[in-house]
Write a structure and sequence with these properties.
Elements: H1 5-16, E1 33-34, E2 41-42, H2 49-52, E3 55-70, E4 78-90, E5 98-109, E6 121-123, E7 129-131, E8 133-144, E9 151-159, E10 166-167, E11 176-186, E12 189-200, E13 208-209, E14 236-243, E15 248-257, E16 261-273, E17 279-291, H3 293-296, E18 304-315, E19 318-328, E20 349-350, E21 369-378, E22 387-402, E23 408-423, E24 432-442, E25 451-464
Antiparallel strand pairs: 1-2, 3-4, 3-25, 4-5, 5-8, 6-7, 8-9, 9-11, 10-20, 11-12, 12-13, 12-14, 14-15, 15-16, 16-17, 17-18, 18-19, 19-21, 21-22, 22-23, 23-24, 24-25
Length: 465
C-alpha cells in the first residue's frame, strides 16, 4: 500500500482490460442479453456483472487553507494549497453476490506549505513538513446476500468501516482500515460488526499498526530520533445496532480497543413534518468511555462522558438550529479533551454524533458546557439555485486545566464560523461545487489550545462513469 503511480496504473489497466471468457451459446434465459459483436447470450445475474455493472468515480479537489495561531510560537499555523485527484472503482456483483472495490488518489502541493494540513503526507519531527504523495487507498472484497440491501453484506480488506463507535472520516479522501465490516439488515433494522488491526490516515502513504501513541511510531520526535515507543493495540472492534424508519433513527454502539479503551454511545433523532412543508428536527447524543490500564498508561481510569442535543427548524430556504452540550473527562493523561476513538488520535477514527462542534474545536473539554446557535439559507427560493450561506456561533464555559504554575483554572471558549457555497446545478459542470469557510476561535488563553483564525477554500468536481 505504498505510493506508486505504476501500481495504480497497472491495477486500473487490469480492471479496464478484463477479458470476458467464452460462455456456451444459446444459454436458456428469458431475460438474456446479447453480447456485443457475438451471437452468445448470458443470464442477467452472472459473473459478467462484475465488470458490466461496475462504476468508476473520478474526483478532483482544490483545497486551500490559511490558519494562524495567536500564540508565542507559530507551530500551529497552516498554509497550504493542494490539488487532489482520486479514482474509485466499484465493481458490480458477480452472480449478484460477490465484487471488489479499488480506490487510489494523489495529493499534489502547490507552492510552499507550512504546518500540518492533514491532507498531504506529513513527516513529523525537528522540521515537520507536508509533501505530495500518491497511494492506493482502498482494496476490498465485498459480498451481499440480496441486491435490495436486505440480508447479509460484508466488506473485507483495506476498507472504510462504519459500525457502532468505529467509523471512517477524513478530509478530501476517506481514511481506511485493514479489517472487515459485517452487517445484517432486515427492514429498517440493521445489526453490524467492525474489526480492524491497521489504519491509514489521509496524511500517510501506508497502513500502519494501531498503537497506544498518537504518532503510530511514524516519523521522528523533536530531537530527531525515530518514534519507537508506541505499543501495538492488537485490534479495535465495535458492535452496532441501527433502526432507521421514515423520519427518524436510533443508533447504538459499543466498542473496545484491545487492552486500551472501551466506549459506548447512543444517538437518536426525529423529524416532524409541519404545515406548509416546514420541518422540526430533534437530535440527541450520549457517549461514555473508560480507559483500560494495560495499554492506556492510565493508572486510575475514570468514567468519561459527553452529552449533546440540538433542535432545528427549517422553513423555506432558512434553517435555524440551537444546541447544548456538556463533557466530563477527568485528567486521564496529557489532555482533558475527550477521546471518542478506540485508540489514540491518528490511530483510528470515531463515529460520533456531536451536536455542538465548531470548525476549529469540537468543544469537548472536561467540565465544558457549550451553547451552539446557527442559521443557514438556501438561496434557491430567491431564484439563485445552488447558492447557500451560513453562520454559526459557539459559546462555552467551564473548561478545566492546569496553568503553567500548576493552578486549577477554568476557561471560556467562543467561536464564530461562516460558510458560503455554490453548487453547479446543470450543464457539463454539474457536480462541481465551491465553498469558503472562515472561522475565529478564542479560548481565554487556554494552555492546551490557543486563539486562532482560519479560512478554508474547497472546490470539488465529481463524475461517475
Amino acid at each position: 500500500m505504498h505510493k506508486h503511480h505504476a501500481v495504480f496504473l497497472a491495477v486500473m489497466t487490469a480492471v479496464s482490460g478484463f477479458a470476458l471468457a467464452d460462455e456456451p451459446a444459446n444459454t436458456p434465459n428469458a431475460d438474456a442479453q446479447v453480447l456485443r459483436g457475438t451471437n452468445q447470450t448470458l443470464p442477467q445475474a452472472d459473473g459478467y456483472d462484475l465488470i458490466s455493472k461496475a462504476e468508476t468515480t473520478f474526483s478532483a479537489w482544490y483545497y486551500g487553507r490559511d490558519r494562524q495561531e495567536q500564540a508565542a510560537t507559530d507551530r500551529g499555523d497552516i498554509k497550504v494549497n493542494v490539488i487532489n485527484l482520486g479514482l474509485n472503482f466499484k465493481s458490480g456483483y458477480a452472480w449478484d453476490k460477490v465484487g471488489f472495490d479499488v480506490a487510489a488518489h494523489t495529493a499534489q502541493k502547490i507552492g510552499e506549505t507550512k504546518g500540518w494540513s492533514e491532507i498531504l503526507r506529513h513527516e513529523d519531527g525537528v522540521s515537520p513538513k507536508d509533501e505530495s504523495y500518491s497511494v492506493i487507498s482502498q482494496a476490498a472484497i465485498k459480498f451481499r446476500q440480496n441486491a435490495d440491501g436486505q440480508g447479509l453484506a460484508t466488506r473485507i480488506g483495506y476498507t472504510p468501516i462504519s459500525v457502532g463507535t468505529l467509523g471512517t472520516s477524513g478530509g478530501l479522501q476517506s481514511h481506511a482500515y485493514r479489517g472487515a465490516e459485517v452487517k445484517y439488515k432486515t427492514g429498517d433494522l440493521e445489526l453490524g460488526y467492525g474489526w480492524a488491526d491497521q489504519f491509514r490516515n489521509e496524511w500517510d502513504d501506508r497502513f500502519r499498526n494501531i498503537t497506544n501513541q498518537w504518532h503510530q511510531n511514524r516519523g521522528t520526535n523533536d530531537k530527531g530520533m525515530p518514534h519507537i515507543d508506541g505499543k501495538q493495540i492488537e485490534y479495535v472492534n465495535s458492535l452496532g445496532l441501527r433502526y432507521a424508519p421514515k423520519d427518524g433513527f436510533v443508533d447504538i454502539g459499543i466498542g473496545e480497543g484491545k487492552d486500551y479503551r472501551r466506549n459506548a454511545q447512543i444517538a437518536g433523532g426525529y423529524t416532524w413534518n409541519l404545515a406548509g412543508g416546514d420541518k422540526l428536527t430533534a437530535t440527541g447524543y450520549l457517549f461514555t468511555a473508560k480507559n483500560i490500564t494495560q495499554l492506556s498508561g492510565d493508572a486510575d481510569p475514570k468514567n468519561e462522558y459527553h452529552a449533546s442535543g440540538s433542535v432545528s427548524y427549517a422553513t423555506g430556504g432558512l434553517t435555524l438550529l440551537g444546541g447544548l452540550g456538556y463533557t466530563h473527562n477527568p485528567a486521564n493523561g496529557a489532555s482533558n479533551e475527550l477521546n471518542f476513538r478506540l485508540a489514540p488520535w491518528a490511530n483510528s477514527d470515531n463515529r460520533n454524533f456531536i451536536q455542538t462542534w465548531g470548525q476549529l474545536d469540537d468543544f469537548v473539554w472536561d467540565g465544558q458546557t457549550v451553547i451552539k446557535l446557527s442559521a443557514s439559507y438556501d438561496f434557491a427560493k430567491l431564484g439563485l439555485p445552488g447558492f447557500s450561506a451560513g453562520i454559526s456561533g459557539n459559546y462555552a464555559t467551564g473548561a478545566k486545566y492546569k496553568n503553567e504554575q500548576g493552578q486549577n483554572v477554568t476557561a471560556k471558549f467562543s467561536e464564530v464560523d461562516l460558510s458560503f457555497g455554490y453548487a453547479v446545478q446543470s450543464g457539463v459542470l454539474k457536480g462541481a461545487s465551491i465553498g469558503i469557510y472562515p472561522a475565529w476561535l478564542k479560548t481565554d488563553k487556554f494552555d492546551q489550545k490557543s486563539d486562532r483564525s482560519d479560512v478554508k477554500v474547497v472546490a470539488n468536481y465529481t463524475k461517475t462513469f
